[in-house]
Amino acid sequence: MEITKKFQGVYDIDGNVATENLNQGIKVYGERLVENEDKEYRIWDPRRSKLAAAILNGLETFPFKEDSKVLYLGASAGTTPSHISDICNNGLIYSVEFSPKMMRKLADLSQMRKNIIPILDDATKPRNYMNLLQKVDAVYSDVAQPNQSELFMDNARLYLKEKGIGILMIKARSIDVTKAPNKIFKEEESKLKTNGFRVIEKVKLEPYEKDHMAFICEFSF
Q: Domain boundaries in the chain?
């Protein structure tokens, strides 16, 4: 078995991306666990996590550190937040989810992972949870809505620290099924730039996710 470090808390294990398990012996979504010496790693499924797909497709900008504070929009049941929880083991992941059904699963996960803070709310109304979090080092958004760029920007303006990084996962088909995805990506990038965001990296997510692109941004305060 060959293990090499890709980023802080992220490893390549024989061509798979993985994180060191914060809760040894416990799976979150049925992922494969790999033991090596006194450590245990969780294989990070790129077909279940867009961030894993971006890493495998050559992502270079990785804002997550051991003590990072992260605002995660569209946390669902916690698949990707759980891997960020492994990475930011001394940080906090404020995880916003709108669906009560998914929130129940996320709340259960937060009982085992104390650095995950579940927030049942609407990411299009970021002022709703102002009293629940502080400024963050990274805003990660994976919300499949027509206004996905706008809600990302609204949250980033409110909560992102100066010199913080935003990661926006754009799902083209959730914006307009009639337009070519590449045209949508260009339009969304233009929105970001017009509103003071500098796109520092773009990563397409095929073959793991069709018609998706990750935008990595900085905001000009």
A: 45-219
Give 10-residue mean pLDDT values along the chain (221 residues): 93 97 97 95 98 98 98 98 98 98 98 98 98 96 96 98 97 95 97 97 98 96 74
pLDDT of residue 1: 85
Fold (CATH) for 45-219: Rossmann fold (3.40.50)
Query: Do 51 and 80 meet the contact criterion of CB atoms below 8 Å apart?
Result: yes
How far apart are the C-alpha atoms of 170 and 149, rounded to whole Å?
8
Own/partner contacts of 89-93, CB < 8 Å, gap of 24 or more, are 89/9, 89/22, 89/115, 90/66, 90/115, 91/64, 91/65, 91/66, 91/67, 91/115, 91/137, 92/117, 93/117
Q: Please tell me the distance from the alpha carbon of residue 215 to that of residue 71, in angstroms, as a whole number.
A: 16
Phi and psi, residue 135, nearest 5°: -60, 145
Between CA 216 and CA 84 the distance in angstroms is 16
Rg (Cα) of the chain, in Å, rounded? 17
Provide the β-strand partners of residue 217: 166, 199
pTM listed for this prediction: 0.97
